[in-house]
Design goal:
Length: about 210
């Protein structure tokens, strides 16, 4: 698994899906200042990499959640990848909205699931885990059994780890913060002096100031 995490971190850095700017922080939608930005959706634009992500997510699901009966993607970032994974596994697919539609049937879950279906959730990125676990809650309320979640990347924030543990959801990711930073350092994308700043940020991202 460590070899996969290193290899995928390298691939994300090469297509600039991950950007590290310790001295010129990004502003996230949450308002947090961050020296780190990840956009896994860029992998969809590269056929070889898109297929790589699909197959590795499939392998992760078959290895950790072999009893899976359906796949659910989290809108909007994981809809495409989730559909690709479901197609490869020949399983039913649904996606979960962040909020119900304000017209029509006002669905929160789009698609059909058998009552009690064993579902694996596909996510593109885990930050605090809030939106991902809202999708889990919606699926459970809808009568599904969520047996786990797979994602391309996680920041590994303590608040996310605690939230997943509290929700009883096993999370498997293809790569993570530690491997991305290590690969970025090894390839000269960042300097040794940047690592402490990045680590300080990850410990308390909500209150971090450069």
């Amino acid at each position: 698994m460590d070899n996969l995490k290193k290899a995928f971190a390298s691939k994300l850095l090469k297509i600039k899906a991950i950007k590290l700017q310790p001295n010129n922080p990004f502003t996230w939608a949450s308002g947090w200042k961050s020296p780190f930005y990840c956009d896994n959706r860029k992998t969809l634009s590269y056929p070889d990499l898109r297929n790589y992500v699909k197959l590795e997510l499939v392998h992760a699901i078959l290895d950790r959640f072999p009893e899976v009966e359906a796949i659910a993607g989290v809108a909007t970032g994981a809809i495409a990848q989730g559909a690709l994974v479901a197609d490869a596994l020949n399983l039913p697919f649904v996606y979960v909205r962040s909020k119900p539609k304000d017209h029509g049937l006002e669905n929160l879950i789009e698609g059909e699931l058998e009552p009690g279906a064993k579902v694996v959730v596909v996510e593109d990125l885990i930050s605090t885990g809030g939106s991902s676990l809202k999708a889990v809650e919606a699926l459970r309320k809808g009568g599904s059994e969520v047996i786990g979640m797979v994602a391309s990347y996680t920041y590994g924030f303590p608040v996310a780890r605690e939230a997943f543990e509290a929700a009883g959801v096993e999370l498997v990711t293809l790569t993570d913060y530690e491997h991305v930073v290590a690969e970025a350092l090894e390839t000269g994308y960042i300097a040794e002096s940047d690592v402490q700043l990045l680590n300080d940020w990850r410990r308390d991202p909500a209150n971090w100031e450069n």
